Amino acid sequence: MSKTNNYIPFEVKYKDSIYHDSVSYPNDINKIKKYSDFILSKAEDYIVTRANKSFYNKLKLYGVEVNYPESNRIKNYDDQSLYELSNFEVTYWIIYTYEKDKFRYAFGLEFNKDGKMISENKFPDYAKNKDFENLINPCNALQLVENKKRFKNKKVDFIELNYLDEKNSFRWLIQEKLDIQKLGISKYSLDMYYINANNNKLETINKKKGSVIACGIKY
């Protein structure tokens, strides 16, 4: 989820343990505490103002990435001058996870060094949608998709929680499974179904296109 390829990731401890067990970051967030405390407080203010304190308390802080300008290429994490962040035009990419009914939604918010958010909204505005956390069961969304004629004889690849700022609501994203019929290079076109997670209405179907290489060994 990194914003650039010129950044330093910082690990955040959650309740005296590392929250994420699949990734190991080499730097402790306390190394930039005098900067991160300010940025994280700004992020909290934004989240609480847009959603509410209850929503904020359900979030888990996954990590913080400090993005440096291209003119200051990172070559060695041992360079202590890199951690004097006031000397650089850095931005902060703060990654949170939100869990609801065993589904986990990860999102990042980007802030400049002055604490101003410069990324897009990633969760609903509570004032305009007070029911945004009342999510329908994803099985209902799946049934809606499976009943579509265009989905006949197809399979589901995955279903995940998604957000669209234009609708100010979470959505269930259901993607059709890729079925490779031959070896070699094949072009594909998959349907991606977006269902409003509050009212179970199909909002749109997008096409995902690309190419895939299927390899096989003959004996």
Please give the count of helices. 3
Structural class: alpha+beta
Order of helices and strands: EEEEHHEEEHEEEE
Strand order in space, largest sheet: 4-1-5-6-7
The count of DSSP E runs of length 2 or more, i.e. the number of strands, is: 11
Low-confidence stretches: 15-23
Q: How does the major sheet shape up?
A: 5 strands, mixed
Large-scale geometry:
flat
The portion of residues forming beta strands comes to 35-45%
Radius of gyration: 21 Å
The separation of the N and C termini measures 41 Å
Helix content: 10-25%
- Give the overall pLDDT as a whole number: 89
Layout of helices and strands, plus pairs?
Blueprint: E1 7-11, E2 13-14, E3 17-18, E4 27-28, H1 33-50, H2 53-58, E5 59-67, E6 91-100, E7 103-112, H3 138-146, E8 156-164, E9 169-176, E10 184-196, E11 202-214
Parallel strand pairs: 1-4
Antiparallel strand pairs: 1-5, 2-3, 5-6, 6-7, 8-9, 9-10, 10-11
Description of the structure:
The protein is α+β, with helices and mostly antiparallel strands and 219 residues long. The protein is 15% helix and 38% strand. It has helices at 33-50, 53-58, 138-146, and strands at 7-11, 13-14, 17-18, 27-28, 59-67, 91-100, 103-112, 156-164, 169-176, 184-196, 202-214. Strands 4-1-5-6-7 form a five-stranded mixed sheet. A hairpin with a 4-residue loop joins strand 8 and strand 9 (169-176).
Summarize the structure.
The chain is of the alpha+beta class. It has helices at about 35-50, 55-60, 140-145; strands at about 5-10, 15, 15-20, 25-30, 60-65, 90-100, 105-110, 155-165, 170-175, 185-195, 200-215. The protein is built from three helices and eleven strands; from the N terminus they run E-E-E-E-H-H-E-E-E-H-E-E-E-E.
